[in-house]
Amino acid sequence: MMNLNADILPQYRQEAPKTPPHIILHYSAFKATWDWIILILTFYTAVMVPYNVAFKNKTMDDVPLLVIDSIVDVIFFIDIILNFHTTFVGPSGEVVSDPKIIRMNYLKSWFVIDLLSCLPYDVFNAFQHVDD
Fold first, then answer.
1. Residue 93 pLDDT > 70, yes or no?
2. Sign of CA dihedral 114, 10, 98, 85
3. Which helix (H) or strand (E) holds 81?
4. What does each C-alpha distance from 49 to 62, 85, 106, 116 come to in angstroms?
5. Are 95 and 87 within 8 A, CB to CB?
6. Closest residue by Cα to residue 73 from 128, 26, 109, 114
7. CA pseudo-torsion sign 107, 108, 111, 112
């Protein structure tokens, strides 16, 4: 097994930066676990959305699947909120923990994609009338 000493670890991993209480370190155990959950739910969405579009006709009779998909959408929305409060590594290698800079960076990068992923399209489709 590899021994990670101070020569190998990046500077920001050697000492915890001073962060406001509501800011999450991007390399914390909580954030790593949360990212794995988001990855699994992304795979679920990547499989289920095409399947539902191709083979299922969502109606109000499919309540359990609608509830599961709605829970996934809520978790994706929570992920957006967490991303507004998560540090990141700046261009010069420093950990950025200023809330205003974090918000601007997230708005400029992944925010639009994340927002589109959490919109409850299934809820809208469940109420549409389909003629056979």
1. yes
2. positive
3. helix 63-83
4. 14, 29, 26, 14
5. yes
6. 114
7. positive
